[in-house]
Write a structure and sequence with these properties.
single chain, about 130 residues, alpha+beta, 60s Ribosomal Protein L30, Chain: A, about 20% helix
Length: about 130
């Protein structure tokens, strides 16, 4: 099956050997996004809230580049440096979705790229 690489300058460029997203048929696999501002190249590190907002903006940009939006997302994974941040991340994350909500996993990890506190990836159905 053929796949299409999705790329947009409105989300951070990959910092390794991976694509922002790949579309295979009617499925879209979006790589984990961290709170990197694509316009400035700077990390947004003020608070867990500001980090989460930037991550969601980055996800939105990649989805849009593929012709999708948050209503197409069927699965997400949230990676947190500390599960203590879960309530704040969950509140902001929840603003981007409406019912039916995507399936989701949330895990605490020892470390994330560039020492950020949150990373989120998703799978969408187009």
């Amino acid at each position: 099956m053929n796949s299409t690489v999705i790329y947009t300058e409105n989300a951070p460029a990959p910092i390794g050997p991976y694509s922002q997203a790949r579309r295979v048929g009617n499925q879209l696999f979006v790589s984990g996004q961290i709170p990197l501002n694509p316009k400035t190249g700077e990390l947004v590190m003020d608070s867990i809230e500001s980090q989460t907002e930037q991550v969601m903006k980055n996800l939105s940009a990649v989805l849009e580049a593929a012709g999708a939006e948050f209503s197409h997302v069927i699965r997400t994974t949230i990676f947190l440096k500390s599960m203590d941040d879960f309530p704040k991340v969950n509140e902001i994350y929840g603003r981007y979705f409406s019912e039916p909500f995507p399936a989701r996993a949330c895990v605490e990890v020892a470390r994330l790229p560039k020492n950020v506190s949150v990373e989120i990836d998703c799978i969408a159905f187009l």
